TrEMBL record:
Gene3D superfamilies: Spore Coat Polysaccharide Biosynthesis Protein SpsA, Chain A. Its main location: membrane. InterPro entries: Glyco_trans_8, Glycosyltrans_8_dom-fam, Nucleotide-diphossugar_trans. Coiled coil: none annotated. One of its GO terms (cellular component) is Golgi apparatus. This is Hexosyltransferase. It comes from Quillaja saponaria (Soap bark tree). Pathway: Glycan metabolism; pectin biosynthesis.
């Protein structure tokens, strides 16, 4: 799907909403076993979701282990509604939805979360892995927003250690996204021997991600010598986990977290140590794969519009989350593009009978 900057924003939003509600496909994949009744509540502490349609592979899809597309996300009760919407969006727009294999990371024992996902997506290939919060105990520094300080926000650093060793590549996604294109296109990126592939934003003021203390210390700031560092968002990454493991990148990131505890060299959570290790040395991916910042800034979460250019993935990074703004009946215009994927029981959208 391509939406260009010459299109007026109201028209653009209207067209994109129609496409999300009535996606156009040229594949032979079919949708079967649609049941829209309310599923049984897995836990009194979790929201209730409708059962999603059973998206099936087309005839051209392979069925071998090598045909799998591995996707990792975190599982948290506060963001579960976003995770469900993200999974639905990927299945709905995938040519080979049965080839998607999800690896969920949870900070707690997760029988209730497992039940919630299984009842919502009965046909989904997925596993839930326990992320031990003790791995980051004493390593997290307070940031500008409390949500960024949660241990689970750092789980992506340890992803290569948690998932099975036979998984060589994985797509890591935040829970506040929806995908409006075939995720296989992102999966197929040529990594060119890089550890991470992601959209880069070289027009952003890179210096703002670190404190004056960092830039004034020649021993610290020289880490970027020989690189042209640019900002990239760690909420959408393709990771070569084999290279990550062999290169000891978990330890490299942890070393910068230790420096942060001593000298306070940045203000955000898990993003800056990724930048310190990898910025200027990643595989650049088209910006269409992370239309980020839709949740506004980290303080007020004010409404923002779409950036110019084509869109494959919408990302509500920032303080404002679409499900919270919709529930408050004070949504931003952009939040209506998320709503069609919301499987929450009381939501009024296209899946309701």
């Amino acid at each position: 799907m391509a939406f260009w900057s010459s299109t007026p924003l109201p028209v653009l939003l209207g067209l994109l909403s129609l496409l999300l509600l009535h996606p156009i496909t040229t594949t032979t994949s079919s949708t079967a076993g649609i049941r829209l009744g309310i599923v049984r509540r897995p836990s009194p502490d979790l929201p209730v979701f409708r059962e999603a349609p059973a998206f099936r592979n087309g005839d051209q899809c392979g069925s071998n282990e090598t045909d799998l597309i591995h996707v990792s996300m975190t599982l948290d009760a506060n963001y579960l509604r976003g995770t469900m919407a993200a999974v639905l969006s990927m299945l709905q727009h995938s040519t080979c939805p049965e080839n998607l294999s999800f690896h969920f990371l949870s900070a707690h024992d997760a029988p209730e979360l497992f039940s919630s996902i299984k009842s919502t997506f009965p046909y989904l290939k997925f596993k839930i892995y326990r992320f031990d919060s003790n791995r980051v105990r004493g390593k997290i520094s307070r940031s500008i927003r409390q949500a960024l300080d949660q241990p689970l926000n750092y789980a992506r650093i340890y992803l290569a250690d948690i998932i099975p060793t036979d998984v060589n590549r994985i797509i890591y996604l935040d829970s506040d996204i929806v995908v409006v294109d075939d995720i296989a296109k992102l999966w197929g990126v040529d990594m060119e021997d890089k550890v991470v592939a992601a959209p880069e934003y070289c027009h952003a003021n890179f210096t703002q991600y670190f404190t004056d203390k960092f830039w004034s210390d020649p021993d610290l700031s020289k880490t970027f010598e020989g690189r042209n560092p640019c900002y990239f968002n760690t909420g959408v990454m393709v990771m070569d986990v084999d290279r990550w493991r062999k290169g000891g990148y978990t330890q490299r990131v942890e070393e910068w977290m230790a420096v942060q505890k001593q000298k306070r060299i940045y203000h955000l959570g898990s993003l800056p140590p990724f930048l310190l290790v990898l910025a200027g040395n990643i595989k650049r991916v088209d910006h269409r794969w992370n239309q980020h910042g839709l949740g506004g800034d980290n303080f007020e979460g004010k409404c923002r519009g779409l950036h110019p250019g084509p869109i494959s993935l919408l990302h509500w990074s920032g303080k404002g989350k679409p499900w919270l703004r919709l529930d408050s009946r004070k949504p931003c215009t952009i939040d209506h593009l998320w709503a069609p994927y919301d499987l929450y029981r009381s939501s009024r959208h296209f899946l309701e009978e």
